[in-house]
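Cross-check.
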Amino acid sequence: MDEMTPQRLTVLGHAQRLAIFRLLMRRYPDRLPAGEIGAALGLKPSTLSAYLAALAEVGLIGQTRAGTSLRYGIEMETVRNLFDALLIDCCQGRPDICSPLTQPDPSGDSRMTQSATGRKFNVLFICTGNSARSILAETILRDRAGDRFKAYSAGTKPYSELNPFAVQVLRDKGHDVEPLRAKNISEFHGEDAPVLDFVFTVCDLAANEECPPWPGQPISGHWGMPDPVKATGTEAEKALAFQQAYGALHRRIEAFAALPLTTLDRIALQSAVDDIGRN
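Predicted model, tokenized:
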């Protein structure tokens, strides 16, 4: 066991330091400014600074400079070493007591599979309001690769409605908007909810929020992008922001739909999903 393991566990034993760690894990591979972390978790700058320093001291997070500001992110190699210490050393690698992530399938095959009946992969796109970006993504995937994927979208706000600019962009692109409605994420946690294979957040605020664990351990990714709803200016300038959001999501979904899902293992697939979110 790494001699730093006890210190890292001690640092994570503090509720607010653990909350920072969990937030940065949800946003990986992004690196966030301290102000965004503090706002998401309601921490004062002085308190946050002390917690970030403690996490950095044991190597769990690192910082990079972007212009005049510092950005913080997970040091994944260190985190993997910590998890290895817990799952392989402490648990002796026993699949009956270790995380099921260590044994995704009893046969040892960790690739994504589709049943012989042709079950489609279920994909959920999450945003705060489920009014624009997630609606665009749901529609694009449905129409781009509906033979292999069943696309859903949801928001973290209790109530929302479709943004008229988003609906108009979809109409202009030839998409059917009749099936669309704003939905809350709670619809996907009930007993009758579909078992999800992929969960993508497409806005930073939604990624910053904590959600209950998803059954079935879907592949997750963060594909954050600017919110076109916040665009200002003329009607044409606002419409352009939605066109740009549509184009960015279309490129990412094209790349996602082209992945050889049934031949990649979970690690390779997660890496590919993360790479798409960077572009």
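Strands lie at 32-33, 61-66, 69-74, 121-127, 149-155, 198-201, 219-222. Residues 235-257 form the longest helix (23 residues). Passed to J.P. for a second look.
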